[in-house]
Amino acid sequence: MIRIKRAYEEVKESDGFRILIDRLWPRGVSKEKLKIDLWLKEIAPSSELRKSFGHDPNRWEEFQSKYRDELKEKSELLIQIKKLEEKLGNISLIYSAKDEKHDNAVVLLELLNN
Q: What residues pair up with 19 in beta bridges, in sequence order?
């Protein structure tokens, strides 16, 4: 099972294998506290896309479309996550955005579960 979780939430055993999917390390969180098993920054949106989106819900549809286009070029990373799920069971995709409905983790999760 793959799920998404904010970096600022408490780490739980049920999180399983924790993958940070942001290009930048979450502000104010130490490596010890975050307990990341894998930092897959290559799967994050490009810096250009992230900056143009700016977490503006009015740009959400455009962001989703452009991020999905970027992910088409990163199919090996999507396969890597699916293989980890098959091998380990629970996978948590860790992200730091405040908006839990409009962020790259939502797009990535939807893509992985289809």
A: 38, 93
Backbone dihedral angles phi then psi of residue 18, each to the nearest 5 degrees: -105, 120
Q: Please, what is the Cα angle at 66 between 62 and 71, to 5 degrees? A: 145
Write down the pLDDT at residue 20.
Answer: 98
Number of domains in the chain: 1
101 and 79 Cβ atoms separated by less than 8 Å: no
- In angstroms, rounded to a whole number, what is the distance separating the alpha carbons of residues 39 and 36? 7
For 9-62, the pLDDT digits (tens) are 999 999 999 999 999 999 999 999 999 999 999 999 999 999 999 889 999 999
> In which domain, by residue range, is 58 found?
2-112
**Residue 16: left if φ>0, alpha if ψ -120 to 50, beta else—which one?**
left
Q: What does DSSP say about strands 2-6 and 38-39: parallel, antiparallel, or unpaired? A: unpaired
Distances (CA, A) of 42 to 20, 59, 71, 78, 96: 10, 22, 10, 11, 16
